[in-house]
Amino acid sequence: MSRHCQLTGRKPGFGKSVSHSHRRTNRRWDPNIQSRRYWLPGEKRWIRLKLSTKGIKTVDKLGVDATVARLRARGEKV
């Protein structure tokens, strides 16, 4: 499974590394994915989400309940 954010959908970016001699080799830029635990008060349980740093800020702004509702509406298992 590639590293991707459950909320924002951020995935790795692909491109080339270019050396001083201008040789090109493949590389990838991974998003900053972190596993965070959140308390879901409505269900009285902890949930674990794999989020990018922007996704963590979004959860802080919207709240856990709204975020989980958005994920479930999309059909993602939480």
Automatic annotation (TrEMBL):
What is one Pfam family matched by this protein? Ribosomal_L28
Keywords carried by this UniProt record:
Ribonucleoprotein, Ribosomal protein
Q: GO CC terms on record? A: ribonucleoprotein complex; ribosome
Establish whether keyword Cell inner membrane is in the entry.
no
Residues annotated as region Disordered?
A: 1-28
Keyword field contains Transmembrane helix: no
| Highest rank taxon of the organism | Bacteria
One GO molecular-function entry: structural constituent of ribosome
In Gene Ontology terms, what is a biological process of this protein?
translation
What HAMAP family does UniProt report for this protein, alphabetically?
Answer: Ribosomal_bL28
Annotated family: Belongs to the bacterial ribosomal protein bL28 family.
PANTHER family (alphabetical): 39S RIBOSOMAL PROTEIN L28, MITOCHONDRIAL (PTHR13528), LARGE RIBOSOMAL SUBUNIT PROTEIN BL28M (PTHR13528:SF2)
Question: What's this protein's name?
Answer: Large ribosomal subunit protein bL28
